[in-house]
C-alpha cells in the first residue's frame, strides 16, 4: 500500500489557511510557498476530503507537473490506470514488470520529483540502462521543472543547477539526478532517499554488482523501484522478480491492456475467437479492438510478443537458448501447482507430501559454498516407490549447515537414502554427516565404495535426459515452482553444454537429477549397511 510513511494529520488538522492554499493552488500554483511545500511533504499520502479521494501527492502531480503526450502536446499529468494502480499499491521496496510504454517511468519520475520539492534534504536518483534513455528521462524531469508556475520557479523552487542530468534546489537542499547503469560509480558516495532503476533487465555489465552498490546508498526508510520490461529468463531483474517474496519487494505486474490506446479501431470484424482469445477476453474483459491489436502484435513480433506485450508474469520471461525441458509442459504444470502444505526457514524448506510410515525415500543433494549471491545448496526428497516430489530444501548453506539440515530432513523421511554430489563441496557435507551427525545411510549402499554421487561428463547428460523424460511423461510428480522455473531457464548452449542461462540457477535441477537417477539405478532405498547409527 502507499501508506508506508505515516500520514500526519488529515483535513481537520491542516487548518483553514492550508486548506485554502490547497484549494487555490490550481493551475498557477496559487499561494504555494516553501513553508507549505515542506508541510505537505510530511503528509503526501493523506487524502483530504477537498481532494475527492486523491492523495496530496497525486494532487500536486496533477496540478503542478506537465508532460508531453503521445500526440506531442504539453498537458497536465493525469494518472492513467497503471499509474493509479501503482500509486495505490506501492511500498518502500517495489519491483515492476510491465508492457511497453505504460507510463510507469513517467509516474515514478513525477512521484520522486514531488518528494524532492517538498522534503528538505532529498536526493532522488533515476538510473537508466543507457545514455539515450537517461537523456529521455531527464527531458521528462526538466519538463516538470520548466512548466512549474513561475512564482515557484522564481521563489521556493529556484535552482542553482539544472543541466547535465542534475537539478539542484538550494532552498530545500534537495537534488534530482539521472544516471546510467553503464557508470560503475553510479550512486557511490551518495545517500539516496528515492532510487528508481529503469529497464534493469537491459543493464549491461555486472548488473548485480551495480544494483548492489546503488541499493547500499539507500538508507532505511528510503524508497526503491526496480522496473523493466522482460528480457529473458535470466539476469539480475529476473532473479529479483523471482525472489521478491523473500526480499520484501512488492511485485507490480502491468499487462499490455492497461494502456487504453492498445487497440485497433479500424477493424470492423475480427471473426471467430480462438479458444485462447476467448478465455483471455472473458477473464480480463477485452473487447474486439483489443483482440485485433493482440493479433497484429503477434504477427509483427512473433515469439517476442510475450516480452514486448506480456499477458502474465511467467510466460513473458523467454529463454534465449534451446530449452532442455519441454516448455509447454512446464507452463501447463505451473498453472496447476498448489502451495506447499508446510514451509520452514523463511521458505527455504517446502513440503508437499509429509513422510508416511513404512515408505522409503531418497534425497538428492547438490552442495555449494554457501555464500549469498552464489549458487544455492539444495536437496530434493522423492518417494522411492512413486517418484513423487515430497520436499525441497534450498538456501545459501555452507557444508556444515547443509549437512545438519539434510540429516534432519532425511531422518524425518524414515531415514532416507541420501545421495550427496561429492564433487567439490560435497566431500565436506558427507564428512559432517558421517562424523558429526552419525548419519550413514549414504549412497552407494554397496560395501567398499566411496560415499556420495559423482557427476561426470559421461553421466551428466544421462541424468538430465532422464529428468527431462520424467517431466514430459509424468509432470504431476513435480510440485516445486522454484524447480520448474529453473527447468524453464535450463538451456543447451552453442557449445552443446546444457546448463542454466547466464544469471539463472540450476541447483534444484541438479539435485532432482541426482535423486531421480539414484532411484532409477536402485541402491537400497532403505537403511542398509550404512543405516542410522
Tell me what the CATH architecture of the largest domain is: 3-Layer(aba) Sandwich
- CA-to-CA gap between the ends? 53 Å
- Order of strands, main sheet, comes to 5-6-7-4-8-9-3-10
CATH superfamily of the largest domain: P-loop containing nucleotide triphosphate hydrolases
Could you describe the largest sheet, including whether it forms a barrel?
8 strands, mixed
User: According to CATH, what is the class of the largest domain?
Assistant: Alpha Beta
Helix content: 25-40%
Helix count, DSSP H or I runs of 4 or more residues: 19
Strand-residue proportion: 15-25%
Counted beta strands: 19
Briefly note the CATH topology name of the largest domain: Rossmann fold
Mean pLDDT: 87
Radius of gyration: 28 Å
Given the C-alpha coordinates, what overall shape results? Answer: globular
Whole-number tally of structural domains:
2
Low-confidence stretches: 1-11, 524-533
The computed structural class is alpha/beta
Your description of this structure?
37% of the residues lie in helices and 16% in strands. With 533 residues, it is of the alpha/beta class. It folds into two domains: 11-254, 3-Layer(aba) Sandwich (Rossmann fold); 324-521, Nucleotidyltransferase, domain 5 (2-Layer Sandwich), CATH 3.30.420.240. Strand 5 (161-163) and strand 6 (166-169) form a beta hairpin. Helix 2 (34-41) packs across helix 5 (104-118) and helix 14 packs antiparallel against helix 18. The chain is globular, with a radius of gyration of 28 Å. It starts with 10 loop residues before the first helix and ends in a 12-residue tail after the last helix. Residues 1-11 and 524-533 have low confidence and may be disordered.
Amino acid at each position: 500500500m502507499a501508506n508506508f510513511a505515516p500520514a500526519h494529520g488529515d483535513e481537520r488538522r491542516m487548518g483553514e489557511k492550508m486548506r485554502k492554499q490547497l484549494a487555490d493552488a490550481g493551475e498557477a500554483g496559487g499561494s504555494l510557498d516553501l513553508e507549505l511545500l515542506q508541510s505537505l511533504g510530511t503528509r503526501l499520502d493523506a487524502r483530504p476530503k477537498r481532494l475527492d479521494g486523491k492523495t496530496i501527492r497525486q494532487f500536486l502531480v496533477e496540478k503542478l507537473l506537465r508532460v508531453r503526450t503521445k500526440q506531442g502536446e504539453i498537458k497536465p499529468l493525469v494518472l492513467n490506470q497503471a499509474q493509479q494502480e501503482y500509486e495505490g499499491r506501492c511500498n518502500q521496496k517495489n519491483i515492476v514488470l510491465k508492457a511497453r510504454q505504460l507510463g510507469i517511468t513517467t509516474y515514478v519520475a513525477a512521484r520522486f520529483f514531488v518528494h524532492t520539492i517538498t522534503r528538505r534534504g532529498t536526493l532522488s536518483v533515476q538510473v537508466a540502462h543507457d545514455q539515450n534513455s537517461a537523456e529521455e528521462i531527464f527531458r521528462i524531469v526538466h519538463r516538470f521543472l520548466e512548466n512549474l508556475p513561475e512564482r515557484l520557479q522564481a521563489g521556493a523552487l529556484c535552482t542553482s543547477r539544472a543541466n547535465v542530468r542534475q537539478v539542484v534546489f538550494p532552498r530545500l537542499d534537495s537534488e534530482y539526478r539521472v544516471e546510467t547503469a553503464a557508470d560503475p560509480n553510479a550512486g557511490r558516495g551518495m545517500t539516496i532517499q528515492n532510487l528508481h532503476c529503469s529497464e534493469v533487465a537491459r543493464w549491461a555489465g555486472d548488473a548485480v554488482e551495480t544494483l548492489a552498490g546503488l541499493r547500499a546508498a539507500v538508507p532505511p526508510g528510503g524508497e526503491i523501484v526496480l522496473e523493466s520490461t522482460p528480457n529473458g529468463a535470466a539476469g539480475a531483474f529476473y532473479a529479483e522478480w523471482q525472489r521478491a517474496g523473500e526480499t520484501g519487494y512488492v511485485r507490480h505486474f502491468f499487462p499490455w491492456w492497461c494502456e487504453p490506446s492498445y487497440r485497433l479501431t479500424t477493424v470492423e470484424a475480427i471473426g471467430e475467437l480462438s479458444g485462447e482469445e476467448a478465455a483471455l477476453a472473458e477473464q480480463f474483459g477485452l473487447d474486439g479492438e483489443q483482440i485485433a491489436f493482440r493479433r497484429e502484435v503477434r504477427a509483427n513480433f512473433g515469439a517476442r510478443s510475450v516480452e514486448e506485450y506480456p499477458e502474465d508474469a511467467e510466460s513473458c520471461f523467454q529463454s534465449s537458448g534451446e530449452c532442455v525441458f519441454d516448455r509447454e509442459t512446464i507452463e501447463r504444470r505451473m498453472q496447476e501447482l498448489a502451495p506447499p502444505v508446510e514451509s520452514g526457514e523463511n521458505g527455504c524448506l517446502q513440503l508437499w507430501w509429509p513422510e508416511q510410515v513404512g515408505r522409503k525415500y531418497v534425497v538428492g543433494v547438490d552442495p555449494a559454498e554457501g555464500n549469498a549471491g552464489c549458487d544455492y545448496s539444495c536437496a530434493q526428497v522423492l518417494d522411492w516407490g512413486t517418484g513423487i516430489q515430497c520436499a525441497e530444501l534450498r538456501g545459501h548453506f555452507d557444508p556444515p549447515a547443509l549437512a545438519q539440515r539434510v540429516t534432519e530432513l532425511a531422518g524425518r523421511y524414515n531415514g532416507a537414502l541420501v545421495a550427496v554430489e561429492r564433487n567439490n563441496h560435497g566431500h565436506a557435507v558427507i564428512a559432517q554427516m558421517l562424523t558429526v551427525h552419525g548419519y550413514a545411510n549414504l549412497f552407494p549402499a554397496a560395501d567398499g565404495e566411496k560415499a556420495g554421487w559423482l557427476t561426470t561428463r559421461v553421466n551428466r547428460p544421462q541424468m538430465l535426459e532422464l529428468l527431462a523424460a520424467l517431466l514430459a511423461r509424468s509432470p504431476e510428480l513435480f510440485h516445486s515452482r522454484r524447480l520448474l522455473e529453473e527447468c524453464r531457464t535450463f538451456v543447451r548452449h552453442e557449445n552443446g553444454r546444457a546448463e542454466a542461462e547466464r544469471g539463472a540457477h540450476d541447483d534444484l535441477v541438479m539435485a532432482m537429477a541426482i535423486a531421480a537417477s539414484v532411484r532409477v539405478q536402485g541402491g537400497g532405498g532403505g537403511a542398509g549397511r550404512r543405516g542410522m547409527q
